[in-house]
Amino acid sequence: MQKKKAVIGGVAAAAVAVGLGSWWAVDAAVDTQTGERGTCGGATWELDAEAEDGGTEVGAELQSAGPGEAWQVEILRDGTSLLSGERTTDEDGEIDVDVHASGNPGDATYEVTFTPADGEPCTGTLGG
Fold first, then answer.
1. pTM higher than 0.90 for the full model?
2. What residues are paired with 87 via a beta bridge?
3. Rounded Cα distance, 125 and 76, in Å
4. Phi/psi at 15 (nearest 5 deg)?
5. How confident is the model at residue 4 (pLDDT cuts 50, 70, 90)?
6. Which of 10, 40, 67, 91 could join 122 via S-S bond, C-beta 3.0 to 4.6 A?
7. In the chain, what's the furthest Cα-to-Cα distance?
């Protein structure tokens, strides 16, 4: 009977250790990604930065009124341009861009600016 209790106790302890390990992994993943959202001029933007491949993947998304709209897009890291150019919204009215930067997500300020052909710019900032 004692041997059976010891085995059950060992299995329970292993399950707790695995559970704590999973919790730590989720907590660590949360610390490596950050994001911001906002709205302007009838559009919604999102900017996020996530640790990836020894650097940071910076993603920016715009949800606008409709498909086929031309927007100027620029992503900056601490004032230095990582991406700049014109993009056109897809059939869902979205623009989605990603760029890789050096460093960790939390060690810089990222900024995205979406500017429509006939309107005011939408700017989002992350970090800093």
1. no
2. 71
3. 9
4. -65, -40
5. low
6. 40
7. 80
